[in-house]
Amino acid sequence: MVTITKTKPILLFAFLDNVSSFQPCSLDLIRKGMREVWGPVYSARNFALEYKFIHFDDKSKTFSLTTDGERLLRYTGSLRNEFLIHNFKLSFYEPFSSVERELAQRKNMSIQ
User: Fold this and answer.
1) pLDDT tens digits, one per residue of 53-81
2) Which structural domain range is residue 73 located in?
3) What tens digit of pLDDT does each residue of 76-103 get?
4) Using one digit for the tens of pLDDT, what is the confidence trace for 27-61?
5) Whole-prediction pTM value?
6) Are 48 and 12 in contact (CB under 8 A)?
7) Neighbours of 65 (CB within 10 A)
8) What is the CATH number of the domain that holds 44?
9) Is 56 exposed, middle or buried (0-12, 13-18, 19+ CB in 10 A)?
10) CB 25 within 8 A of CB 72
11) Which alpha helices (DSSP H) does the chain contain, by range?
């Protein structure tokens, strides 16, 4: 299954900042801290879970930052983006890995 979110970097970092401030915390508390409607919050949550920036505890239904999430929040401004580029190979994750495989096979693919 491929998870594609519509989150923007500013929303992702707002989500992670709120998790950091309140952890362990519920999704409702994060949403209130972000002052956003549910859609962008779910999108940021999905991205953060997919790339393992946050951990969800099924028992208590709360979120907390992972080590990678904590490392990411140590940076500010454009350094956050640079950290992501140099430390997280997004091409190893879906949907990027599927696209990479398809493009690699393209020279072997028929027109049909």
Assistant:
1) 999 999 999 999 999 889 888 888 888 77
2) 9-108
3) 888 877 776 666 665 566 666 666 677 6
4) 999 999 988 888 888 988 988 898 889 999 999 99
5) 0.69
6) yes
7) 20
8) 1.10.10.10
9) middle
10) no
11) 9-22, 27-34, 38-50, 67-73, 78-87, 96-105
